[in-house]
Amino acid sequence: MTEHIIAPAEILLPGENIDMKKWPALACDQFTSQPEYWQAAERFVGSEPSALRLVLPEVYLEEPGVEKRIETIHAEMDQALGSVLSRAVHGFVYTERCTESGVRPGLVCALDLEAYSYEPGAEPLIRPTEGTVTSRIPPRLAVRRGAALELPHILMLLDDPTDTVLGPIVAAKEHLPKLYDTELMLGGGNVAGWAVEDRALVDGVIAAIDRFAATPGPGGRAPIAIAAGDGNHSLATAKAYWEELKATLSPEEAANHPARYALAELENIHSPAILIEPIHRVVFGIEKAAFTAALKEYFGETLGSEGEQHFTVIGRGPAEDEQLALREPKEPLCAGSIETFLGAFLPSHPECRVDYIHGEEAVRALCAEGAAGILLPPFEKDDLFKGVYLGGVLPRKTFSMGHAEEKRYYLECRRIQK
């Protein structure tokens, strides 16, 4: 039997009686330094069924009582299976997400975790775009262990300039059953979804992905069929859980176990509605002046007002903004140069911690309270696949697909237990 790296799935959705405005919830790795967002989400949902109850926002990961939160999430999943998730799609779900950037098409499908690896130096068909911080996996693994369901916020990218994957589905959209069309809470825009169960459409998607898997990269390098866009550590957690579980299964059981797959949304990087934006840094526990002095001490004469890699250091207000640039940097991307500095700076400054923030406005709001921020320059999306081919992975937290509110919302569900 031919092995494919994506597969149709039984995708579960809330019944028609559920208020869809309150069901979808934003990706859990957003607003990690702004608990007020998640508090507002809880107030908005109230007592109605919501995906918010089936995920653990990472702002709460290190709080006391997280184990109890996880137990509650698992119980809510069991309850949702019994009374909320009464609709099922056998195939894919085609989605259209309306954001400030435009309408972003996507396809929810199952990725074969056997075709993915986050190990350094590996060249799998499903590839991470940034280095995986393995210390981030265990707390997320605790949520996945014992969970009856997965809900994806993972966005995967295709390098598909002629639109061979999503194009045929878009052309057939008016004939597809519509599943939902709803506003998203707290400024998230709108999302609509259609069932893709037609065998010809399903087979066409799989065949197109197979062609990517068979096409070598530049210079004959191992092909990348699908690359991670958002949710890299969630995908890595799914892989870690699968490897853990697989060790307990027979080969026959492992071949068809639902946890072998991870639900994710595929998007074409060439879509005009996809904006690849830099992820900025905020360092807490230090004022801007002292932080800038540390940067200048570390980089020495290579740091000044002119150079190849430009960035902005900010403090309590715009009047403190300082434009800096590195000459002859050792790292190919500005994000890599900054990460090298932080790797040297943070161990000797235990009073400081760094967070990775999407959007300049959010960075400025945090820095106004006394932190120091680095605004990174634009990231060219055309260089994403090229950078992974040539460099293996990009520096940690190099890019983001849009602002925080434009991330994928949890909506579709899939069983991961037999």
How would you briefly describe this protein structure?
The protein is of the alpha+beta class. 28% of the residues lie in helices and 25% in strands.
Walk me through what this model shows.
- This protein is an alpha+beta fold and 418 residues long.
- It folds into 2 domains: 6-276 and 403-415, no CATH class; 280-375, no CATH class.
- It contains 11 helices and 22 strands.
- Strands 1, 2, 4, 5, 6, 8, 9, 10, 11 and 12 form a 10-stranded mixed sheet that branches.
- The mean pLDDT is 94.
Sequence-ordered SSE layout with sheet pairings:
Elements: E1 6-7, E2 9-13, E3 25-26, H1 35-45, H2 66-83, E4 87-99, E5 102-112, E6 126-127, H3 137-144, E7 149-150, E8 155-158, H4 167-171, E9 178-183, E10 190-196, H5 199-213, E11 226-230, H6 232-246, H7 251-256, E12 261-268, E13 276-278, E14 280-284, H8 288-299, E15 303-304, E16 309-314, E17 322-326, H9 334-345, E18 353-357, H10 360-367, E19 372-375, H11 383-391, E20 399-401, E21 409-410, E22 414-415
Parallel strand pairs: 6-11, 8-12
Antiparallel strand pairs: 1-5, 2-4, 3-21, 4-5, 4-10, 5-12, 7-22, 8-11, 9-10, 13-20, 14-18, 14-19, 15-17, 16-17, 16-19
